[in-house]
Amino acid sequence: MLKYEKVANQIELFIKENDLNQGDKLPILDDLTEEFKVSKSTIIKALDILEIKGLIYQVRGSGIFVRKSHRSGYINLSGGDGFRKDLEGFELDSKVISLEQMVPPKKVALGLKLEDNEEVYYLKRLRIIEGAPLCLEESYFSKKLVIYLNNEIVQGSVFDYLRDDLKIEFGFTDIYLRIVDLSKKEAELMGLKEGDAALLSESIYHLHNGEPFNYSILKYHKDQAQFFVPTSRY
Amino acid sequence: MLKYEKVANQIELFIKENDLNQGDKLPILDDLTEEFKVSKSTIIKALDILEIKGLIYQVRGSGIFVRKSHRSGYINLSGGDGFRKDLEGFELDSKVISLEQMVPPKKVALGLKLEDNEEVYYLKRLRIIEGAPLCLEESYFSKKLVIYLNNEIVQGSVFDYLRDDLKIEFGFTDIYLRIVDLSKKEAELMGLKEGDAALLSESIYHLHNGEPFNYSILKYHKDQAQFFVPTSRY
DNA sequence: CAGTGGTCTAGACCACTAT
DNA sequence: TAGTGGTCTAGACCACTGG
Fold first, then answer.
1. Looking at chain A from residue 5 to 34, which residues have their Cβ under 8 Å from any Cβ of chain B?
2. HSE-up (13 A, CA, CB side) for residue B147
3. From its phi and psi, is residue B175 left (phi > 0), alpha (psi between -120 and 50) or beta?
4. pTM for this one?
5. With bands split at pLDDT 50, 70 and 90, how would you rate the model's confidence at A137?
């Protein structure tokens, strides 16, 4: 692990453990460099990361302060790798509806930059939070990059499997949001009525080298769709 | 303007002007340092900013590549200061419904960290895109920080006024999204039916020094609510 | 193993805040 | 005007990619 990552993690931990609140002041730069025995630039890099993550803000001439605004139960869209981390403390569950290999719809093939007739794993699940339907998930995995998937794996966190077992290194993700109407079938799965609104999230996940490996279409239950996006200068 | 900002802007311009596409390679670091006559660290800082903005991705040992994925007409939530920039090329308009001074609801007073009975400017507008209702806006401005507002100003871009005339320096913003039902009155303004779904966006805008100055509640027309969130490692 | 991006440092100097 | 964060540099060294 890199020095600035280590420092960022420790400062994050420090904020959590001391239960610091909005506006609380962190130690000054010079003290932090001494504390962590690294150069000023390294501390600044660590702080920049925490600023991007929405945890702190820095005021020139004044100090470094805790931001911490996140409402509980909201999914942080800037997080990158799914919503497990944001919904910690909530009981999450999955009901697998189907897992198959297929040639995907054109839109997906395009998004994943597939050759003609190249196959994907197509996974359909109902995600459940505290016993209630959270969202309907349709996920397409490029078989070229996600070489193996089975029913057992898909019962748990697919992203954990990709990272820990397939050693896939995540890069960036594009997320598109809009409102759609549910079909009769979808509504039934979610315990809603045909034509009820849902929040649609379309995401394309890329490896660190820019190759797209997953196209996900999530339809969130209108009562459960709660998102958070922190922004900073930059 | 800072060196790294200038460099970032110029590289962004270079991508646009040469109409570079996803995966196109930018010049290597050494060439960029030479081109811009700045140190390697400064180039890297500029590139990091472009990466956060979702415009490029960097692959160690390989190169710097263009990301460019944005669908047109989608509002970039990570942008920070409203949606004018994302909706460039679209005809935007506002219909002011009311502008008054008042003591705001508790939730707003709390979000803006106001004293008891401290007043705000309360602005209600219908935002229009290409002649169709985009969203219903309710915006509360802390009078302590936004010292003056009138009907003329509020006809155009309030944020431009705050930045250019009041010299307000924006810092960070928290955005919360969820789905709500429209009241009869709201639905009428949007050309929809009572109970129709809308995408609710609640945002608290802060100055660079952490003081909250604006609480905005936007209800987007379900057919116009299109959002984009780019994420990167970090 | 050459090419390319990334980390980390020490230190000079700058810019803003608070008093 | 002292305290504190930010910019920028030159350079040593490291880590990954791809032929």
1. 23
2. 5
3. beta
4. 0.93
5. very high
